[in-house]
Amino acid sequence: MNFTSHNILLNNGTQTLGNSQELLSHSGLWTSIEKTIDLFFPKSIEARAKMRVADLGCLEGGYTVEFARLGFQSLGIEARKENLSKCNYVKSNLSLPNLNFVQDDVRNLPDYGKFDIVLCYGLLYHLNDPVNFINIMSNCTNKLLLLNTHFSPEQDIRYNLGLLNNYLIAPLQKRTGLFEHQKNFRLTSMLKNEGYRGRWYKEWNKKEKTEKVEKLLWASYNNNRSFWLCKKDLTNALHNAGFHSVFEQFNYTGGQIPENYSHFLNRSMFVAVKHT
Ligand SMILES: C[S@@+](CC[C@H](N)C(=O)[O-])C[C@H]1O[C@@H](n2cnc3c(N)ncnc32)[C@H](O)[C@@H]1O
């Protein structure tokens, strides 16, 4: 089985990406999540056993596994069959009865009830209806949403140049890195979608065959382009959806995540909280 991202330690001592790669459980991305959880939830296994976590667009299940190891009832939701079979392979090689996976579109989250923690990592920027989805997540979250996502830059002259950027500047910058102070994602000019500002990102061709889309293991699923909200629009949408506090979390950098990650990729980790 070819894992593409999550290095997970299995019961027999093997790792899904082999022994030379950093384990997801040791990564800054995971340890920063764990630290945040400890701020808001009791540490006892007994208390955590009564709490539910949803991991949205869970890919190979690495984060879902780590939540289960902490004692939470953990559910990973993933659209692609190939990814889900890797999740189930991981489950069958661990002794974690509180670890479960389903194959579904994340937009069906309400079918699975309410969760104390929702993890939305690397997913929101794959949706064409992010604000609708933020509302869905809010309706399903009792306490904490952990959100790692790209956002759109407020100003970037390259994205006003249309085809010139897409077919000349972006390929050139990709090859040479010339003047690429921020990654060139070939976004559109600034537009509004669902009443909020942002830019569109093309994921795959509209007429792409279903089998090909299935093979794009990290991409969007039921929509061929996605809408990247501007940062302020994103935090406004989170507040408007019912989260009382929204923070940005910075201690995931270091190790494999370079210090310029947030600036270069227009990406950050947000923590949205419901006060009781
Ligand atoms: C970039 S990967 C991120 C994986 C993982 N959350 C992480 O941070 O390592 C995006 C994942 O979301 C899944 N995905 C994309 N759109 C989805 C949808 N509408 N419903 C369920 N899963 C989706 C993809 O198949 C892929 O596994």
What does this structure look like?
There is one protein chain. The chain is α/β, with parallel strands linked by helices and 276 residues long. The chain has a single domain (24-154, 190-273), classed as 3-Layer(aba) Sandwich (Rossmann fold). The chain is 30% helix and 22% strand. It contains nine helices and ten strands. It has helices spanning 28-40, 45-48, 62-69, 81-92, 130-140, 163-176, 210-215, 231-240, 261-265; strands at 52-56, 73-78, 99-103, 115-121, 141-150, 191-193, 196-202, 225-229, 245-249, 267-273. The strands form two sheets. Strands 3-2-1-4-5-10-9 form a seven-stranded mixed beta sheet. α4 links the parallel β2 (73-78) and β3 (99-103). The protein is globular and about 55 Å long. The chain starts with 27 loop residues before the first helix and ends with a strand. The mean pLDDT is 97.
